[in-house]
Predict the structure.
Amino acid sequence: VQLQAFGGGLVQPGGSLRLSCVASGGIFSIDVMGWYRQAPGKQRELVATITSGGGTNYADSVKGRFTISRDNAKNTVYLQMNSLKPEDTAVYFCNAYLYRGPGWGNYWGQGTLVTVSS
């Protein structure tokens, strides 16, 4: 299984970015997909998750600014990030709890760096 994330980069405070993550490799079904982030010197933290039925959950720090969505047909999860702040600077990792041949498992992407700076 591969989870490949795209869309990170440098953006000014108040700007927007859209992250994408595609899951591939013998996948039969995906339950929850999500985004986590890890800032320098800090632990990895939840940003947002979305179930296969569209139920969402957000960290308090991003509510009202970030929107998670997914395309089940494409095994892809998105994170639209608006009104970005310097404290949003981190490596963003996508995550999926999915079913393949051997059974259910939790998988991580390689991370994409988001830098919010003027």
Q: What stands out?
A: The chain has a mean pLDDT of 96. Residues 53 and 80 are 19 Å apart (CA to CA). The longest strand covers residues 27-38.
